[in-house]
Amino acid sequence: MDTRHWVHQAAFLIAGAALVGAVPALAQQQTSGVPSGAEIFNARCKDCHEPAIERAPSRSEMAILTRTDIVAALTNGIMKDKAAGLSSAEIAAVAQFLAPGAQPDIAGRDPMCSTQPALRPARGDWPSMGADANSSRFQPDPGLAASDVPKLTVKWAFAMPGGGQPVVVGDYLFMTNRGGKFYALDTRTGCVHWAVDGVPSRATPSIVRSRVSPSGWLAVVGTSRTVHALDAQTGKEIWRSEPLESHSAAGISGAPVVSGEQIFVPLSSGEEGLASQPNYACCSFRGSLVALELKTGHKQWQTYTISEPPHPLRSNANGITMHGPAGGAIWAAPTVDARRGVVYVVTGDSYTEAKTDGTDAIIAIDMKSGAVRWKNQVTPDDNYVLGCTGGAHGANCPTPFGPDFDFGASAVLIKRFFRTVLVAGQKSGLVYGVDPDSGRTLWSTVVGQGSSLGGIEWGIGSDHQYVYVPNSDVNQLHNLHGLKRPTSAERPGNGNPSLSALHPFTGKLVWQIPAPEAPCQYAGDRSKDYVPGVCIRAQSAAPGIIPGLVFSGTLDGWIRAYDARTGKIIWTFSTTAQTYDTVNGVHSQPGGSIDGMGPTIAHGMVYVMSGFNGASRTGGNGVNVLLAFGLPSH
Prior knowledge:
Layout (H helix, E strand, L loop, with lengths): L21 H7 L8 H8 L1 H4 L9 H4 L4 H9 L12 H11 L54 E8 L6 E3 L2 E4 L6 E5 L5 E5 L9 E4 L7 E7 L2 E6 L5 E4 L9 E2 L5 E3 L2 E8 L1 H4 L13 E6 L5 E6 L6 E5 L5 E4 L10 E3 L4 E5 L14 E6 L5 E6 L34 E5 L2 E7 L4 E5 L6 E6 L14 E2 L4 E5 L2 H7 L17 E5 L6 E6 L29 E3 L2 E5 L4 E6 L5 E6 L4 E2 L8 E2 L9 E3 L2 E6 L13 E7 L4
Antiparallel strand pairs: 1-37, 2-3, 3-4, 4-5, 6-7, 7-8, 8-9, 10-12, 11-12, 12-13, 13-14, 15-16, 17-18, 18-19, 19-20, 21-22, 22-23, 23-24, 25-26, 26-27, 27-28, 29-30, 30-31, 31-32, 33-34, 35-36, 36-37
Helix pairs in contact: 1-6, 2-6, 5-6
C-alpha cells in the first residue's frame, strides 16, 4: 500500500504519468466524428466507476480532478489498457465528460526567486522520505525546541495537484506532484528556484551528494516505471533510466532510496484493480526491488518478492485462464542497513490463491547481489483483488479471500547501544519487531482493529527510544457513521484511531492517545462517502519526530504535536478551518485531509501537505496545499 507514495492501491486507478498541458491541445483535435465522452465512459468505464467498485474512484470523485489527471491516467497511467485504441481526441472527450467543471491546472503562476543561491547542505536537512537510510522519520536537529512548537504559524502556502511529501536540503525544498511539475522552492518564502515539467510523481525525491551532477548534488525521483536523476541546483536532467518493469500495471509508489553508489527502487502495481474486470487475465504482476547504478541509472539487479513465476491456475467464470502466484507489490520505500549490507522491504497482498511466501512479508535483500537473505511472511493466504466484497463476487475473485492486510509503511531500523531491531507496521493493526539478522519475529503488538486501509497505513517512526505508530481504522469509522457497508473481511467495532508509543525491543505499549473528535470543513471533498458534519478522525499519515515531540495528522485535517514521553498533546492546528492565498496565485485555497507520507521538519520549519487524495476517499481536494509552518520571528 501508498506510499504508498505515489498513492495507495485504489488511488493507482487514477494515477499515471502526466501529459502536462495536453488537455487544451487534445481538445482542439476533437471533431464531430468523435464519440461523446459519455458514450466512451459508458462503454468502457461505467461498470467499475458508476457505482464505484470498492476503492475505485466514483464519478463524483473524478470530477474534482484536473482534466490533465484524467488524460494522464488513460494515456500513460494504470488505466491505459482500458483506453487502448482510443484516439487523443476521444481521451480528451472522456476527460471533458468526467470533469466538466474541474479546476484549471495550476500553470504559469510560478513566482520565480529573484536570486539563485548555491545549494548548500546544513545541519538539520531532511533529504529523503524517511529522513535517513533507516526510515526513522526522526529529525535530531530541527532548529526549534519543543517549547517553541505552540508558537508555530503558517508562513506561506503553495498549491499543486496531488502533491507528495517534500524534502529539504539547505534553502531548497524539493517536491513532486501528480500534475507533473517537479519543484525546487525556497524554504523561507516558497518562491520557485526551478520547476521542471513532465515528472509526474508522488514518490518523494531523494537528494544526495554526487559527482555525477555539475553542482555536486543529485535529485533522484521515480515516475511511473522510470527513475529520473536531475541536477538538484538547476533541475537539468542528468539521466533517465529505461522502464524498470514491462508489466503494464507496474508503477513506482514508494520513494527510491540512495545508498552509496546504488539506488534501490521498489515496484508496486495496480493489477488488483484491473482484476475487477471480468475479461482480464488475472494475474501476472510480481513486486520487485531494482538496484540501479547511481552514475548512469543502469540496472544492476532485479529481485522479485515472489520467487515462483506465474503459471496457469484455472479458468475464471468467463473462461479466461487465470495465472498465479501474483502480487507482493512493494508500496513503501525500502530501508537500508549498510552495516549488514542489506535492504529491507515490506510487501503487499497476493492477487490469487496460488501459494507463495513473498506476500504480506518482511524481506531482507543483499545490496550487492540482490539475493534474498531471509523472508518473514506474517500473513499467508491474504488473497485480494477489487470487486469481491460487499456482496460482489467478480470473475477473478480468489478463494480463500483475504482481508487485504498488506504493508504500506516502510520498516524502521532502530539501534540503541549494541542492540538493533527492525520494526514494521501492518494494515492489520499489528506492529512487529523482527531480528534483522534472521528475520525471526521477536514480538508483535496490536494497536488497532485493522482494515483494508489500516491499521497502520502510511508510516511509523522512531527517535530510537520509542516507536511511534499512527493507527487509521478508517473503515470502522466509515461504518460507524453509515458511510459504507462493512465487508466480511472487516472486524466489528468502532475503530481505534490513535497514536501509540511502543518500546522497540519488547513491543510493550508505553502510551496510546485516541485521535480527538474535532470539527472540520471538507470544503473540497465531493466523494460519494461524504456526509456534511461528519469528520473522519482516522490517523493514517506517517509521523514526523523531533527530540521530545511527535507530529501526527488526521484525515479530518488536524495536525498535532504530542509529547514523546507521555503522549500529551501540546499543539493543534486545523488545516481546514481557513483557506489560504498561496504563493503561486491561488486565492482561498481550502485545506483538507492529512494523509500519506506525513510532515517534513527542517531548519525551524514544519511542512505539511493538506488535502491529500488518498485511497480513503475522505477529505481530499483536487488541488492540495503545502503549508509551511514557522515561528513568528523567522
